[in-house]
Amino acid sequence: MTLLRRDDADHIATLTMDAPERLNALSDGMLAALQENLNAIGTDSSVRAVILRGTGKAFCAGHDLKEMQAGRQSQDAGAAYFADLFARCARMMQTIQSIPQPVIAQVHGIATAAGCQLVATCDLAIAEEHTRFGVNGVNIGLFCSTPMVALTRNVHRKTAFEMLTTGKFLTAAEAQQAGLINRAVPADQLDSETRALAATIAAKLPAAVKIGKSAFYDQAAMTTSEAYAYTAEVMVQNMLRDDTNEGISAFLEKRHPNWD
Question: Do 130 and 187 meet the contact criterion of CB atoms below 8 Å apart?
Fold first, then answer.
């Protein structure tokens, strides 16, 4: 059974989670498939942007609770299983932000718990206007502590805390206002809007996007003075590239850059 499909076209890799009967839950198999494909994409210079989407009624409903219950077994065995599960999930989430290509979540239906974490982790997100977002594990006695990491790095702190402690869902409009997604669009425009964003990114100089994505996340963890010193050096190295020189020359000469 194929849990995840990869399709490449026009320098865009589309990863489709295909377990609709489980609402594309992040099962052991799904986590492994995502990690494997993200690793491969990260070293594939032909790919300049990535779209992550799901089939069926939902984008992703979070971890597979049936698998988690089965893995519990005893206290000792359960502790080892859960520690490994959350470590694998964290590794996959961090891979999304460490690969050079921007990753765009194409979201529909619901994105809950670790599924909401997945949206928050992606570099960009476009959602269908009726999508709902939640970190609602508290409703079953499981506080969404790991999803909280990505969520609190995207949305206002009080909004995040209310979601985490009440199980409240955000509408797509609220998610956009809070900073969780870039924008919400009608269902019939979701594919085209997401692909248009990916195509815009894919048309840029890949080296510049790679440099910028890495610097974006690195500087966010620094003090202001540290960030300015670091990004100044990043700009120096970027300016010294031959392909950057070509881009600037082309702009000044009012022509298209020759980057191919």
Answer: yes
Q: How many other CB atoms are found less than 10 A from the CB of residue 207?
A: 16
Q: Report how far residue 235's alpha carbon sits from residue 248's, in angstroms, rounded to the nearest whole number.
A: 14
**What Rg do the C-alpha atoms of the chain give, in angstroms?**
19
Q: What are phi and psi of 128, to 5 degrees?
A: -70, 140
- What is the rounded distance in angstroms from the CA atom of residue 17 to the CA atom of residue 6? 9
Domains of the chain, start order: 4-202 (3.90.226.10), 206-252 (1.10.12.10)
The tens-digit pLDDT sequence of the chain (260 residues) is: 799 999 999 999 999 999 999 999 999 999 999 999 999 999 999 999 999 999 999 999 999 999 998 887 767 778 889 999 999 999 999 999 999 999 999 999 999 999 999 999 999 999 999 999 999 999 999 999 999 999 999 999 999 999 999 999 999 999 999 999 999 999 999 999 999 999 999 999 999 999 999 999 999 999 999 999 999 999 999 999 999 999 999 999 999 999 87
